[in-house]
Amino acid sequence: MRDLVDTTEMYLRTIYELEEEGITPLRARIAERLEQSGPTVSQTVARMERDGLLHVRSDRSLDLTQRGRELATSVMRKHRLAELLLVNILGMELDRVHDEACRWEHVMSEEVERRVVELLDHPSRSPFGNPIPALDELGMKQPKLDSGIRVIDLPDGEEVSGTIVQINEVLQVDADHFRELTKAGIGVNKHITVVNNNGEVTFTTETGATVELADELAHAIRVART
C-alpha cells in the first residue's frame, strides 16, 4: 500500500498481522508488507517507540505496548468489518477487498462499527475467515473460534484432509496467487487435501484441481482437520 491514510495505524495493524500469522514482527517485514524503504520504516518505528506504542527489543523484534495493542486491535476490527461490508453488502470481489478496507479502517467510527455489526447480524469472522477482534468493546460477546492450524505446521509429507478456516492478509494482497486459488476452488470453508513437503505445500480440491504454494504464502492458510 503506497497511499497510506494513517501511517501509524497501518504499521500497528501490520505488526498485529505478523503476530497473528506466527511471524516475528521486524522492521524488515513491515518494509516488505508496506513496500516502504528500510530507512523510512526505521524512522517511523522510532517515532512510534517515542510515542509509547511499541518497544524495539534487543533482538530487533517489535513488541506492542498495551496502548499500541489496543489501537492495533481497534484498527484490525474496523478493517475486518469493512471487508464484510464491502463483500456482503456492496458485492465487491474478494481480490479487491483488502486494499479498499485498508482505507476504510482509518475513518470508521465506533458508531458506524456498531451499525455494521447490527446490519451484518453480529459477525465473528471476516470474509477470509479471520476472527474480528475486540467485539466486546462494541457490546458484543466475543465468541471462541477454531483457528485451525497453519498448513506449514502440518506433519511433513503427510496427506491431510481438512477445511480452510482462515486466509491471512499476506495472501489476500497477492492478487495473482489469490485469484489462482479462487479459480481452483480453494477458499474459506472449502474442503481440501493438503500435503506439506518441507515448506512447499500442495492443495488439492474435491474436483481434483491442484495448486502449489511456497512457505512464504502457504503459512497464511489455516485448516481444521476433518
List keywords for this structure.
globular; alpha+beta; 6-stranded antiparallel β-sheet; about 230 residues; 8 strands; 9 helices; SH3 type barrels; Diphtheria Toxin Repressor, domain 2; Arc Repressor Mutant, subunit A
Structural overview:
This protein is an alpha+beta fold and 226 residues long. It has three domains: 7-64, Orthogonal Bundle (Arc Repressor Mutant, subunit A), CATH 1.10.10.10; 73-138, Diphtheria Toxin Repressor, domain 2 (Orthogonal Bundle), CATH 1.10.60.10; 149-225, SH3 type barrels, CATH 2.30.30. The chain is built from nine helices and eight strands. A six-stranded antiparallel sheet has the order 3-8-4-5-6-7. The protein has a two-stranded antiparallel sheet with strand order 1-2. The radius of gyration is 18 Å and the shape is globular.
Radius of gyration, whole Å: 18 Å
Class per helix and strand makeup? alpha+beta
Enumerate the spans where pLDDT stays under 50 for 5 or more consecutive residues: none
Terminal Cα span? 37 Å
H and E order: HHHEEHHHEEHHEEEHE
Largest sheet: number of strands, sense, barrel closure: 6 strands, antiparallel
Find the count of extended strands (DSSP E, 2+ residues).
Answer: 8
Instruction: Specify the CATH architecture of the largest domain.
Output: Roll
Mean pLDDT: 92
- Largest sheet, spatial ordering of strands: 3-8-4-5-6-7
Individual helix count: 9
Please tell me the total number of domains.
Answer: 3
The name of the CATH topology of the largest domain is: SH3 type barrels
In one word, what is the shape?
A: globular
Query: In which range does the helix fraction lie?
Result: 40-55%
